[in-house]
Specification:
The structure holds three protein chains of three kinds. By secondary structure, chain A is α/β, with parallel strands linked by helices. Chain A has two domains: about 20-220, no CATH class; about 220-370, GMP Synthetase, Chain A, domain 3, CATH 3.30.300. In chain A, about 35% of the residues lie in helices and about 30% in strands. Chain A has helices spanning about 1-15, 85-90, 105-110, 115-125, 140-145, 155-170, 175-185, 220-230, 295-320, 330-335, 340-350; strands spanning about 30, 35-40, 45-50, 70-80, 95, 100-105, 130-135, 190-195, 200-210, 215-220, 240, 250-265, 275-285, 355-365. In chain A, a hairpin with a 2-residue loop joins strand 2 (about 35-40) and strand 3 (about 45-50). In chain A, helix 8 (about 220-230) crosses helix 9 (about 295-320). The longest helix of chain B has about 45 residues, at about 75-115. Chain B has a single domain (about 5-360), classed as Amino acid/polyamine transporter I (Up-down Bundle), CATH 1.20.1740. In chain B, helix 1 (about 15-25) crosses helix 6 (about 140-160) and helix 4 packs across helix 14 (about 305-320). Chain B starts with 14 loop residues before the first helix and ends with a helix. Chain B has helices spanning about 15-25, 30-40, 45-70, 75-115, 125-140, 140-160, 165, 185-195, 205, 215-240, 245-250, 255-260, 270-300, 305-320, 325-360. Chain B is globular and about 65 Å long. By secondary structure, chain C is α+β, with helices and mostly antiparallel strands. Chain C has 16 helices and twelve strands. Chain C starts with 19 loop residues before the first helix and ends in a 7-residue tail after the last helix. Chains in contact: A-B, A-C, B-C. At the A-B interface, helix 1, helix 7 and helix 10 of A face helix 5 and helix 11 of B.
């Protein structure tokens, strides 16, 4: 009892020292998207997009508003700082990074290298792992401060746009995946490429990185579909092609489940043999009518297999020429080769013999025959 | 030195499982993967299994030691084996070790809170509150301390379930090819791994508080098995979720892993996870303090009620003196090394010593 | 513990009359004390009683005629003649005082004569047995205890018709001498528990005993605990049920509540209704109530913690709702929550103090008018209003009123902790409650059993209620003398299909 009586005043003493800086949600401004434009000489123009939830729909004393406006601030500073200190001077309330969901780099900065930013993102505990990084074709400042048809804040629009596309067309690429490839051996990171066109934002392809430097891109749509097919199992996503390159024989299929396996032989030799085997179940959604459907379906799937194989191999060849490994062939080789050496692999990779084999099983052709 | 513990303060043999498990899972599990994979690469998870096996052996030795001694706990055992004065000195050293063990856990948890949630939270204030909380458990006696060990198992269960989320990003090929590393590397990793498993050394102090100790054997080994399983799953999930290079840059892999967990009502599980982790750390602190005060009671023949505040004040002050990460790391590695030699060298040594002593004494 | 173990002078010394004369002098001061001389040719006697305690009609109809008739010379003759079972002939002023205060009639040959004949003519005035008001149930018995201990005992005895059902009576209260009955079934109830209760009842030293709730506070293991350690119930069926489990029940005269002990914390969240429903639904409702408790205690502290410190936790789709609802609020979340919580507590308190009809009006005025107005005035956010109201609602799902009060009030320390240290504060506060609950006992039995100490067999009727076929044993924590309800193995023998 005596101890208890003693403890209480001591506890009261500690309460002031234990007081913490509060970040009351309406007394801070949540940065949700950041854009970095390279100005030159290691200088970067940072732009933050801060949704302003408090302005809209205040007529009934703080009822939830349906739309939010976005404020954006821009400041030029040296690279490698998430939010330059100068930025705080422009904001009415402290800017907080805890809810960042999209980070954009313009092409020049991406080419210059984003290592400083990656280091920061990996280090700061306040940054989540589900946020998206993207490369912007054009100026990120323009993109973030632009007006769009969507009534939502630009950050949410961007986030939803990338999320939706990742589900169907692009390989998974959030911050965690980026860091995984960036720090890991035998796989190079990739990012989506965004472009502002009028009052819309669109995804135009996949940016290929080598050690934090943007080196090339895969254009949308068919190439990214094939790329996704080769890099991970997924369902959804449409593939379109012309039978025998005949514009009238336009065919579109929907992927209802694909699997990919890699088998590597001679992983340590100067030219490893890699076989990428894709199994895909598909539904034909659009095709010109023919009299004998069974034969016709066989024909389509054969043609499509050939087409994907050809394009896929071309894609890999392109990667090899650029010496980037977005598919993670190195990591796959490591997992199937004892005593794998990363340094040697770097030399061997361009000479690797990569084969793509595709099996397509057409499950149905819709409700008519 | 006979100690009579009334049945009222004893716990059932089943609780040995939770006592052992709760003491082994502390702050080490938050980031052990980095250290073992630095030695054994992607095969490091095997070190978890070998460590698990080694702990079973040490536990078996402990049981043999305690069963053969008349006093029932480490304090009595050392006095019995080494005589009054050397025994007393050794006991004192052991208590200092356990006290620093508690200090490490407390300070590391505070470090985690400071880095991840409240950078401005003062070490003194946080230490004070957590120790105050520990005090309210420890004054309840061994049963209450066992209670928090048991409850921590229940509270910690959700943390285990959320391992499902990172598995959605798993690259199982990270674990291949199996056994690429040499057995020597795995053994070296095992030595590092044991540092996380050290907590069960306290078992030698609370052994007399377990009802029907013969029956508790089974549960104690189950406890070790549970720990091994927990660590193994944690390691495997980390290895499939992180790339090796990424792991090198991650201090607290479990916490980084929680960043990906999100529910419709809340995201960023690490904040909730660290909060729940308080209840995983708490039994370590409580049981540690209890054991130290119990030992001190036997050593100094003072009432435990007087020792508890003393020990808490010592902990509070020494906790506050560690002000940065480097000091905490130094403390961590020092205590781990001492703990390793205590469990894996000293305990087998006194086991052999006891065997010899009993053989020599028998004829006379 | 000022009423226990205190061997000081008894404060009731002057309350005890030394002689009959003193006693009558004292009694005659009261206007409702009647004393008159009854004269006959052969003899005369004095009859005295409290007309407010005695059934006057009964006296005139059934008692006085017997005294008028016959050859009565002395008190012994009266005793022989009267058709009343409870007649005492005594010279002890103490007994006379006690009896006359209970509604007995005193007959003396002379005024202030030391020899008195006392016999019972108690007028029973009290409520009719009514429907339960607090622990109402849709199905199941509809009887509730009343203020008379005999009527209450009758209600219980009807349900436990065995000779092994024992009732021990103790008088508590130095002045009031309130009758307190301890009920248990010999052969089921644990002897140690019985002795503990008996000892604690005997230890109580207080001047009066108004209600069972007072008794439970005096008898509790830890009188500083916010958690009640005895279940109070107004249902005789529940009392009978707990008796069969091996518990001990305490009835206090004048109290329409019975106390059952020992108890565990989970029992406070099980309504007796649960036993009338099929086990799936009973279990579902129990889980619902437990969830309600967690929600009720933690929702507003979590709101405060998250909005004050941990904005990172809020999903991006919820950000807009939360921020825009808070944007006009001039107070920090903590004050906002505190104001609303206090408002709800005020409403509850006002509703409880006012007569039922006005209470309803207050509920409507408070709930709808103040709630909406405060949101529109921009004093509180509507998200929080929903949460606090739902939390208040959730706290009322606790079947036990005392536990419900506890649940409502322990959220305030949580709220303060959340403001000070965010979710870490909530965890720390929770830790202190866990420490307290781990140490708490009810009649020396652990309070949070079957969670800790873990008793798998007792989990059958804790968070969920398994079907009666699985309830073959009585709760372990009671340590019943006869642990089995029925032979489980025999009950399990079942025929194969098509046999």
């Amino acid at each position: 009892m005596k101890i208890k009586k003693l403890c209480l005043p001591i506890l009261l003493l500690f309460i002031p020292t234990g007081c913490l800086h509060s970040t009351v949600i309406d007394d801070i401004r949540l940065v949700q998207a950041i854009g970095y434009d390279y100005v030159g000489d290691d200088l970067v123009l940072s732009t933050v997009a801060v949704p302003n939830y408090t302005m809209g729909g205040g007529e009934s004393g703080g009822g939830p508003s349906s739309s939010a406006t976005t404020d954006s601030f821009s400041v030029i500073s040296h690279t490698g700082k998430a939010i330059p200190t100068k930025m705080q001077t422009k904001a009415q309330q402290p800017l907080k990074l805890g809810k960042v969901n999209t980070i954009l780099f313009d092409e020049d900065l991406a080419k210059h290298g984003i290592d400083d930013f990656v280091d920061y993102l990996n280090r700061d505990p306040v940054i989540g792992r589900k946020l998206y990084l993207a490369v912007v074709d054009g100026s990120t400042q323009e993109l973030l401060s632009g007006q769009y048809e969507e009534s939502q804040a630009v950050s949410i629009y961007l986030n939803d746009l990338i999320k939706q596309n990742i589900k169907y067309n692009l390989p998974r690429m959030n911050l965690h995946e980026f860091l995984y490839s960036y720090f890991g051996q035998g796989k190079d990171p990739i990012l989506p490429i965004l472009k502002k066109s009028g009052d819309h934002i669109e995804i135009t392809g996949i940016a290929l990185f080598r050690n934090g430097k943007y080196v090339g891109k895969i254009p949308i749509p068919n190439k990214t579909f094939i790329f996704k097919l080769m890099s991970q199992p997924f369902e959804g996503g449409a593939y379109e092609f012309y039978l025998k390159n005949n514009p009238s024989a336009y065919i579109s299929v929907l992927n209802t489940g694909s699997k990919v396996t890699y088998s590597v032989k001679n992983g340590n030799s100067a030219s490893p043999d890699i076989l990428i085997h894709v199994k895909m179940k598909a539904i034909i959604t659009e095709a010109p009518l023919r009299s004998n459907p069974k034969e016709y379906i066989n024909k389509i799937s054969k043609a499509m297999e050939k087409d994907i194989e050809k394009q896929g191999e071309q894609l890999v060849e392109k990667f090899q020429k650029m010496s980037v490994d977005p598919l993670g062939l190195g990591a796959k080789t490591r997992s199937q080769t004892r005593g794998w050496d990363f340094e040697k692999w770097k030399d061997h990779y361009p000479n690797a013999d990569v084969k793509l084999k595709v099996d397509i099983q057409v499950k149905q052709t819709g409700i008519t025959e | 030195m006979k100690t009579n513990i009334s049945e009222k303060s004893q716990v059932s043999p089943v609780m040995t499982l939770f006592l052992i498990h709760a003491m082994q899972v502390g702050v080490g599990i938050l980031g052990f993967e980095r250290y073992i994979s630095a030695i054994a690469g992607h095969d490091a998870w095997m070190a978890v299994i070998t460590t698990g096996i080694s702990t079973h052996i040490v536990l078996w030795i402990m049981y043999r030691l305690l069963e053969k001694s008349s006093g029932g706990d480490l304090i009595a055992l050392q006095q019995e084996l080494f005589g009054k004065y050397i025994g007393w000195g050794l006991n004192f050293l052991v208590l200092i070790y356990f006290l620093s063990f508690v200090l490490t856990i407390l300070r590391t948890y505070i470090e985690v809170i400071q880095v991840w949630i409240f950078p401005e939270f003062s070490v003194w204030a946080l230490g004070f509150i957590i120790l105050l909380l520990a005090h309210s458990f420890v004054i309840g006696g061994f049963r209450t301390v066992t209670g928090i060990c048991f409850l921590s198992f229940i509270y910690g269960a959700p943390l285990f379930i959320v391992k499902y989320f990172p598995l959605q990003y798993a690259n199982f090929s990270n674990l291949m090819p199996i056994m690429e590393q040499s057995p020597l590397a795995i053994l070296k990793a095992t030595k590092v791994m044991t540092l996380s498993f050290l907590g069960f050394g306290l078992f030698m102090l609370y052994y007399p508080f377990i009802k029907r100790p013969k029956q508790s054997k089974k549960w104690a080994h189950f406890g070790l098995l549970t720990t091994t399983y927990t660590y193994l799953v944690t390691a495997l999930v980390s290895y499939v979720y992180f790339s090796q290079g990424q792991l090198k840059h991650t201090i607290w892999s479990t916490l980084s892993l929680w960043k990906i967990v999100s529910f419709p009502v809340f995201e960023r599980f690490e904040y909730v996870g660290i909060t729940i982790w308080l209840f995983v750390v708490l039994p370590n602190i409580c049981l540690g303090i209890w054991a130290v005060t119990r030992g001190a009671k036997l050593l100094f023949s003072v009432r435990q009620k007087i020792i508890i505040p003393t020990v808490l004040i010592i902990l509070f002050i020494s906790n506050g003196l560690f002000q940065n990460r480097i000091q905490v790391d130094t403390l961590n590695s020092l205590i781990s090394t001492v703990g390793f030699y205590f469990l894996y060298v000293y305990i087998p040594f006194i086991f052999i010593y006891q065997c010899v002593l009993l053989k020599v004494r028998k004829p006379s | 513990m000022f009423w226990r173990n205190r061997q000081k002078k008894i404060p009731t010394k002057q309350e005890r009359a030394a002689t009959i004369k003193d006693l009558f002098h004292d009694l005659e001061v009261s206007n409702d004390f009647t004393t008159f001389e009854h004269k006959k040719e052969t003899m005369s006697c004095w009859i005295s009683f409290f007309k407010t305690l005695v059934d006057v009609e009964y006296v005139h109809r059934d008692v006085l005629p017997f005294i008028y008739e016959g050859k009565i010379q002395n008190l012994k003759d009266i005793k022989a003649n009267l058709p009343v079972e409870d007649i005492i002939l005594t010279r002890d002023a103490h007994t006379v005082q006690e009896k006359v205060m209970q509604g007995y009639i005193v007959v003396q040959m002379k005024k202030y004569d030391s020899e008195c004949l006392v016999f019972s003519a108690i007028a029973i005035q009290g409520r009719q047995i009514d429907k339960p008001e607090i622990e109402t149930s849709i199905i199941g018995p509809k009887e509730a205890f009343v203020e008379s201990i005999d009527a209450n005992l009758n209600l219980v005895r009807k349900r436990v018709p065995i000779p092994k059902f024992h009732v021990k009576e103790i008088q508590i209260g130095k002045i009031s001498k309130t009758r307190v009955n301890m009920l248990y079934i010999e052969g089921i109830a644990n002897k140690e528990n019985v002795n503990t209760v008996l000892q604690r009842l005997n230890e109580i030293e207080y001047d009066h005993m108004i209600d069972a709730a007072v008794l439970s506070q005096m008898m509790g293991d830890n009188q500083h605990s916010p958690f009640p350690q005895f279940i109070d119930t107004e249902r005789p069926d529940r009392v009978a049920g707990t008796l069969y489990e091996g518990k001990i029940v305490i009835l206090v005269d004048g109290s329409p509540h019975a106390l059952t002990c020992p108890t565990t914390i989970v029992e406070f969240f099980s309504a007796f209704d649960d036993y009338f429903l099929v086990w799936h639904f009973a279990s579902a409702f129990r889980l619902l109530r437990l969830f309600a408790v967690a929600f009720s205690v933690l929702s507003s502290p979590m709101y405060v913690a998250v909005l004050t410190y941990h904005y990172q936790l809020i999903p991006k789709d919820l950000l807009q709702t939360l921020i825009s609802s808070r944007s006009m609020i001039p107070f920090p979340p903590f004050l906002e929550a505190l104001i609303l919580e206090l408002l709800i507590e005020l409403l509850r308190e006002a509703g409880a103090r006012l007569p039922t009809k006005i209470g309803q009006t207050i509920g409507i005025v408070g709930g709808i008018v103040i709630g909406t107005a405060s949101v529109q005035a921009g004093l509180t956010s509507n998200v929080l209003l929903i949460m606090v109201a739902a939390a208040a609602l959730a706290s009322f799902t606790t079947p036990n009123y005392l536990m419900g009060t506890t649940i409502r009030l322990i959220r305030f320390p949580f709220l303060i902790a959340a403001q000070l240290w965010g979710i870490i504060g909530i965890a720390l506060c929770f830790g202190f409650f866990v420490a307290h609950l781990l140490k708490l006992t009810s009649l020396g039995r652990p309070y949070i059993e079957p969670i800790y100490p873990l008793r798998m067999t007792d989990l059958k009727d804790a968070f969920i209620r398994l079907p009666y076929g699985k309830q073959s044993t009585r709760p372990m924590f009671l340590r019943p003398q006869d642990p089995g309800r029925f032979n489980y193995d025999r009950a399990r023998e079942k025929n194969d299909i098509d046999e």
